[in-house]
Write a structure and sequence with these properties.
Two copies of one chain form a homodimer.
Chain A: H1 2-7, H2 13-20, H3 24-32, H4 39-51, H5 58-65, E1 70-75, H6 83-94, E2 100-105, H7 110-122, E3 127-131, E4 150-153, E5 162-166, H8 168-181, E6 187-191, H9 197-210, E7 217-218, H10 223-234, E8 243-246, H11 249-261, E9 271-275, H12 279-282, E10 290-293, H13 296-311, E11 319-323, E12 326-328
Parallel strand pairs in A: 1-2, 1-3, 3-4, 4-5, 5-11, 6-7, 6-8, 8-9, 9-10
Antiparallel strand pairs in A: 10-12
Helix pairs in contact in A: 2-3, 2-4, 3-4, 6-13, 8-9, 10-11
Chain A binds a DNA duplex through helix 3 and helix 5.
DNA sequence: CTGAAAGCGCTTACAG
DNA sequence: CTGAAAGCGCTTACAG
C-alpha cells in the first residue's frame, strides 16, 4: 500500500545511503556539498535521494547545528492591522532560506508573553522579531538578555537594538507636498492623539511645509473624531480649507463622508489625503482615498533578513532604521495619477 | 559575567544531573514523573532543575518522541479577516499544551503552498490546520496523504476529513428572528454572490422565515453594491422594507449610509443587520451595526483541540462540524439590548 | 576518495 | 531504588 509506506516510517539518510551503496557519512557529505568525493558518487547520491523522496529531518539538523530554521514573531497587535503585512514580508524574505515563523499574539499580558517567549526558546528559535502597533510603546515582555538575537519592527526596541519603523516625517511630507503640487493653499491637518510620536512627526512635517496658518487638530483614531473635526472647522466662520491631510485612513474616510454631507465636493472643493493605505477603508471610501502607505511588508522583509544576519553571526549596525513611505494615489485629491 | 553565561551554553540535563548528584537517566525520570525512585530524590532533582533554570530542549525531545509540539496553520486569507481570529483561538487552546503554531500565508499559489507544507513536514509538525476565507473552496495545495493529521477550518476539506465551519443557516435565522421580534414585517435581504454556499445558506434561512414577498438581492461583497441595492429598492415604486438583513458588514454599512443619504432613519424607519461582526466596519458605522458573529475564535479553539487529539492518536469522528453563531446587538436595529 | 566513530540533548528499555 | 547503554537522525572531525 502506497499509503501505508507514506504514513509509516519517513525515509532517512540511512535509506539514502543504503540505496546509493555508500556509507551514511558519505551520503551526508554528498547531500551537503561538503567533503571530497567523486563527482559521480555525489551525483548518484543526490539522484537517489530525490528519487526516494528524502527530506532531512530538521529536528536532527537543529540539534547538531543549534539552528532550528525557525524564528518567532511576537506581537500585541491582535487585530493584525500592522502585524499581518509585516508577517507577510518576513515570511516572503525567509522562505527561501528555509526558515518558518511562529506567530504569537500576546495582547498586553506579560505572563502570556513570557509563556510564549519561553516556548520559543525551548524550541530553539534562531531569533525573535517583536512587533506592535505603535513605535513608542514596548511589548509587555522583557526581550533583553535573551540567548537569541531580537529585532524590533513597529514597536519600541531596547537601547542598542535594531529597530525598524516607517518614516512618518517623510510620509507626511509626501502627502502635503502632493496637495501643494495640486495647487492647494489652505491645508488643514486632522489627526490622532498627540501622545503618539507618529502623530507628532507627521504634524511636524505638516507644520514645516504649511506653517501655522491653521491649528493642528488632535483627536482620536476614530471616524467619530473625523466628523467632529469637520464640524468644528465648517461651523466656524472664516475661510475654509481647500485640502485636509488626515492622520489615518479612518479619519480621512469620516472627513470625506462629513464633507459630502455638507455638500462640499471631494476632490473638487477639498482634497483629502489619508495615512495607512488600509485597503478596507481606503478603497471603500467614496471617492477612494489617496493615502500614504508605510510599506510594512518591506519593513517585515528587512526585519526578517536582519534576524537572519544576526543569527548567522554577521555584524549588524544597531539603531533605528527608518524606511520610506509611498503615496498611493486614488481619487480623493484629484490630480493626475501619472503626475 | 552573567550575560555571557546566559548567552553561551544553555543548561542541559547533564547539568541538572551533576548538580543533583544523580545520573542522567535518573534526572530524566525524575523530571518526567516516570520510573521509580525515592520521593526525596525526585523532589531534589526537580528543585535543582528550576534553580539552575533548566528547560528541556524541544528539538531533542522531538527527535525521540517524533512530536515537535508544533503545528502548522496554512491559509490563503492574506488579509487576515478570518484567519487571525481563528489563529487566536488555536493559539489560546494549544499554548497550555506547549504547542506553538507556524503561520503560512500562501495566497493562491500552489507552488508556494507546497514549499510551505514541505517546510512544515521537515520540521516535523504534529499536525496541520488548513484555513481560508470561504467554506466552499479548497486551498491550492493537496493535503491528503500527508504523514500528519490535517483539520480544516473555514475552508473546504477533503472527503473523510474533519472540517469546522460556522452555522450560516442558524446565524441568519438569529438575525431575521431578531428583526421579526422587533415587529419588522417587510424584511429585505441584500447579500453577496450566489456562488458562495454561505450566501445560499443565509438566503435559505431568510426565505424560510419571511417567504418570498421580496426577491433576494445577490451582488458582490462591496459597499458599492450596498448603495446600488438600496437605490434599486428605493427607486422602485411600492412599499419599502422596514428592515434589511445584509450578507456582510460591508454591505450593511453601505446600506446604512445610503439610507441616511435618502433621509430614511436607521433604526427608526428601517432596521439593519449585518453579518461578520468585523469590528472596524461594524463599530464605526453610524449607528453601529447589530450583526452576526461567527465565533471564529471558538472555531479555532475546536480545530486546535482536534488536531491535538488526532496527533495523540485519539479517535475523532470525521465530517463537517458546524458551530453556532451569535448575534451582537448594537444600535442599527433599535430594540432593547437586554431583550 | 570513503567510512567508522563520536556526539548534539534527550528518553527508554534493561541490568543490577 | 538507581545507573549504563543504546538510540532518535543527522554532521563532523579523524583515520585509512
Amino acid at each position: 500500500m502506497e499509503n501505508q509506506r507514506v504514513r509509516s516510517a519517513r525515509v532517512t539518510i540511512h535509506d539514502v545511503a543504503a540505496a546509493a551503496g555508500v556509507s551514511i557519512s558519505t551520503a551526508s557529505k554528498a547531500l551537503n556539498n561538503t567533503g571530497r568525493m567523486g563527482d559521480d558518487t555525489r551525483e548518484r547520491v543526490k539522484r537517489v535521494a530525490t528519487e526516494i523522496g528524502f527530506r532531512p529531518n530538521a529536528l536532527a539538523k537543529g540539534l547538531l547545528s543549534n539552528r532550528s530554521f525557525t524564528i518567532g514573531l511576537l506581537t500585541n497587535d491582535t487585530y493584525g492591522r500592522f502585524t499581518l503585512p509585516v508577517m507577510a514580508g518576513i515570511t516572503e524574505a525567509l522562505v527561501d532560506h528555509g526558515v518558518s515563523v511562529f506567530l504569537c499574539t500576546i495582547e498586553d499580558d506579560p505572563a502570556l508573553g513570557k509563556v510564549h517567549v519561553d516556548a520559543m526558546l525551548d524550541k530553539s528559535v534562531d531569533g525573535i522579531i517583536a512587533s506592535g502597533k505603535r513605535i513608542d510603546r514596548r511589548l509587555p515582555v522583557d526581550l533583553s538578555n535573551l540567548p537569541v538575537p531580537v529585532v524590533y519592527a513597529f514597536t519600541e526596541g531596547t537601547p542598542g537594538s535594531v529597530t525598524f519603523c516607517a518614516d512618518d516625517f517623510q510620509g507626511a511630507t509626501l502627502a502635503v507636498e502632493w496637495l501643494m503640487g495640486l495647487g492647494r493653499r489652505r491645508i488643514a491637518h486632522i489627526t490622532g492623539p498627540e501622545s503618539f510620536v507618529s502623530v507628532r512627526e507627521r504634524a511636524k512635517a505638516y507644520l514645516s511645509l504649511v506653517g501655522d496658518q491653521l491649528p493642528v487638530l488632535y483627536g482620536t483614531w476614530s471616524e467619530a473624531w473625523g466628523h467632529e473635526a469637520v464640524a468644528k472647522i465648517w461651523n466656524t466662520s472664516g475661510p475654509k480649507p481647500d485640502a485636509i491631510f488626515c492622520g489615518n485612513d479612518q479619519i480621512a474616510r469620516a472627513v470625506v463622508d462629513a464633507l459630502r454631507e455638507r455638500d462640499v465636493r471631494v476632490p473638487r472643493d477639498v482634497s483629502v489625503v489619508g495615512f495607512d493605505n488600509w485597503e478596507i477603508v481606503a478603497a471603500q471610501t467614496r471617492p477612494p482615498l489617496t493615502t500614504v502607505d508605510m510599506n510594512l511588508k518591506a519593513l517585515g522583509r528587512e526585519a526578517g533578513l536582519t534576524v537572519l544576519a544576526l543569527t548567522e553571526g554577521r555584524a549588524v549596525e544597531p539603531g533605528i532604521r527608518t524606511l520610506p513611505c509611498e503615496l498611493v494615489v486614488r481619487q480623493s485629491c484629484g490630480g493626475n495619477p501619472d503626475h
